[in-house]
Amino acid sequence: MVIQIAKHSGFCYGVKRAIQMLDGIILENNGAKNVYTLGPIIHNRQVTEYYEEKGVKVIENLDDFMDNRIDGDNLIVRSHGAAKSIYDEAAKIGFKLFDATCPYVKKIQKTVSSYHLKGYNIIIVGDRTHPEVIGINGWCDESAQIFDSLEQVEGLLPSSNPYCIVAQTTFKLSLWEEMVAAFEAKLSNCVIHNTICLATEERQNACIELSKNVDIMVVIGGKHSSNTRKLAEICRKNATTIHIETKDDLVDLSGFKCDARVGIAAGASTPDWIVESVILKIENEGEVLV
Ligand code: SF4
Question: What is the pTM of this model?
Answer without folding.
Answer: 0.88
